[in-house]
Amino acid sequence: MHPFLSNADLCSYKSLSPFTNVGELNRAIRRHLYVHSHELTENAVAVFKLIARHAVKTVGVAFLKYEVMAAQVGVSSSTVKRIIRVLKERQMIEVHRTVRQRGKVRGGYGHNVFVIVDPSTDPSEMNHRSIPENTDASNVQPEQKENEALSFEANSLSEKKEPIRNTRKAVANEKFDASFVPTHVPPLFVTAAKPFYDAEGIYRLWGRAVSAYKYINTDADPMEEAIVHSIVQAFKGAMFMQKTGRLRGSLAGYFYGACKRIFERVYEEELDELWQERMHNIREGDLPAWLTAE
């Protein structure tokens, strides 16, 4: 277990880094992603890249809190902690905890110190998958300058991202406002969701409602005004839970559960109506032949 560091001891932080310049750091980041990206979830890769982007000012070392990481990646703090354990198990990072020793508030844990591990110090880690060497001179890329950070791995947050050349990627990354939501999504739902989500987010959330409808398999029309109104209320309830810090899981999951309960009630009403209709027919004399036979 690593000893605790002071939350303001920058000299100790620098001594943790195995790198002497950004070029070495970039090569390590590339190598980690090449070896482990197929084993990691999309969120795990995003967390590793976030750490890498913050590991430039003090080369190889990043200072982050779990809450900040969770907000930037779009997951919960508990998910970030699980991802950090995975990254440690794969020897991609080391984690050091700090204690508050300066300032008005002293004692207790401060921010976390994440150190990118140099994979070249452990050759056995690379045995199962090595980076191919291309000896074709026509494909040799110019060597990157030592003090030049990679655009997505070790780039500081203040630096501008390089233009995306691939048109498809550019379109995929572009945000569309609520006017681009497909017309089959009820306008009432779009109006409620558009202050918080772009077109894709609204479309995905409505898809969760449709999934709940299909799961319950009711005969009701999900586009019926009363049902849409209930779904909108479920969305507002989910947003309230999230904004007030009462939501433990994801908003999409909470919203899906609320929609399931809506369609479960609709299904129960359908069964009740069917039963009432059947009882009415019996009272009117529509009895089975075997009951009326003498």
TrEMBL record:
Keywords: DNA-binding. The keyword DNA-binding applies. Residues 132-142 have a biased composition (Polar residues). The keyword DNA-binding applies. GO terms for molecular function: DNA binding. InterPro entries: WH-like_DNA-bd_sf. Residues 120-165 are annotated as: Disordered. Gene3D superfamilies: Winged helix-like DNA-binding domain superfamily/Winged helix DNA-binding domain (1.10.10.10). It comes from Geomicrobium halophilum. This is DNA-binding Lrp family transcriptional regulator.
